[in-house]
Write a structure and sequence with these properties.
The protein is an alpha/beta fold. It is 46% helix and 15% strand. Strands 2-10-9-8-7-3-4 form a seven-stranded mixed beta sheet, with helices on both faces. A two-stranded parallel sheet has the order 1-12. A two-stranded antiparallel sheet has the order 5-6. Strand 3, helix 5 and strand 4 form a beta-alpha-beta unit. The chain is globular, with a radius of gyration of 21 Å. The protein binds (2S)-2-hydroxybutanedioic acid (LMR). (2S)-2-hydroxybutanedioic acid binds next to loops.
């Protein structure tokens, strides 16, 4: 069976972590995978998570299976997390193994009910989007998104493209902290996108992996309201990996919004069939931690403070990163790095710079020049900046 197989290519993000782990150089720096690190370069367990976890373990009485769609109370908390207390009665939520699990069951659900449609992802996007929807049997195409000249969103080109789509199309939208570019829509632009979706009838799927890392919890989720108020059906794939620091617990959710309660129930019944043949029912632990924090006002306050602290550290690193690069390369403008939202800086470095930094300086980042700013620390920042300057000087940008 396996004798004649050639090795599959490594994953562009997690494969990089494997290469990083195997690198024996002591001064190596991993700016690849989107994982938060504190100023000592560690990925800590949040205090709120530690406390919630202790409470979960103390009250846990069984390891029996969860229902196919997970804990109903977890689902309700997720809906409030996304829509506040006026969570719509047309929302149905399944607990999933992480945001990737949520995207995959969304893809399989959509394939079950409308495989002939086209999936559209932003250009560029998180590489796994293409893989997930292609694995579910879809044709995946790209819509214009990023404008290198402004380091912002190419909104006119994007809107024109969305205006040519129809009910045959499904569009993946990054709710906030666009991965990899860090360039987000303004509120006004979101409203326009919702109007276009309502007018043209295409189906939105939101990837909500970074709620809280942009402008904050409430503003980051706010665009969903435009789609809800327009009476649209849509899906939201939620990850709690970053904002609750629960990476390895695989805590996520898929929320779907139907046009009516009966439409939502019908879609949810199909979603449960998809889950049953994929992983049967979700892991309990990470979801129980999220639910405990969201249900306890004290823990929720601790979590919010910790989330604010993580964002504050990332922002401080962005500013120092920009200042150091600017000082060494005064002819170039790095101010876009401070404007970008979320964990990443889409640096503009080209594949040969990325390769040089990895082989010569043991600094790892994804091939597209995406830098995980949350991996920068006061200790590694000067060396990373010097190395980037060297890479730019050695191999003209
Ligand atoms: C990333 O983009 O680095 C993260 O979302 C981690 C992942 O699974 O790729």
């Amino acid at each position: 069976m396996f004798e004649h197989l050639q090795a599959a290519p490594p994953d562009p993000i997690l494969g990089l972590t494997e290469a990083f782990n195997a690198d024996p150089r002591p001064h190596k720096v991993n700016l690849g995978v989107g994982v938060y690190q504190n100023s000592e370069g560690r990925t800590p367990i949040l205090e709120a998570v530690k406390a919630a976890e202790a409470a979960v373990l103390a009250r846990e009485e069984t390891k029996n299976y969860l229902p196919i769609a997970g804990e109903p109370a977890f689902g309700k908390r997720v809906e409030e997390f996304l829509f506040d207390t006026q969570s719509p009665d047309t929302a149905r939520t399944a607990q999933t193994p992480g945001g990737t699990g949520a995207l995959r069951v969304a893809a399989d659900l959509l394939a079950e009910i409308c495989r002939e449609r086209t999936i559209w992802v932003s250009d560029p996007t998180w590489p796994n989007h293409k893989g997930i929807f292609a694995a579910a049997g879809f044709a995946v195409k790209s819509y214009p998104y990023y404008e290198p000249a402004t380091h912002g969103v190419a909104f006119e080109r994007l809107a024109e493209k969305l205006n040519r789509m129809s009910t045959d199309d499904i569009v993946i939208l990054h709710l906030c902290c666009h991965n990899p570019t860090g360039a987000d829509f303004t509120s006004e632009q979101w409203k326009t996108v919702a109007d276009i979706a309502a007018h043209r009838g295409w189906f939105p799927v939101f990837d909500a992996a970074y709620i809280g890392f942009g402008e904050g919890w409430e503003p980051d989720r706010a665009p969903l309201r435009f789609f809800l108020d327009a009476g649209l059906e849509f899906c939201v794939a939620v990850s709690f990996s970053k904002n609750f620091g629960l990476y390895r617990e695989r805590a996520g959710a898929l929320t779907l919004i139907g046009a009516s309660k009966s439409a939502a129930d019908a879609a949810f019944s199909w979603l449960k069939r998809v889950i049953r043949v994929t992983y049967s029912n979700p892991p309990a632990h990470g979801g129980a931690i999220v639910r405990t924090i969201l249900e306890d006002s004290l823990l929720r306050d601790v979590w919010r403070r910790e989330l604010t602290d993580m964002c504050g550290r990332i922002h401080a690193m962005r500013e120092q990163f920009c200042t150091l690069l600017q000082a060494q390369l005064p002819d170039r403008d790095f101010s876009f790095m401070v404007r970008q939202r979320g964990m990443f800086s889409f640096s503009g470095l080209q594949p040969d710079h990325v390769e040089w930094l990895r082989t010569e300086r043991a600094i790892y980042m994804t091939q597209d020049g995406r830098i995980n700013v949350a991996g920068l620390t006061p200790a590694n920042l000067p060396c990373v900046c010097d190395s980037i300057v060297q890479a730019i000087r050695c191999l003209s940008l």
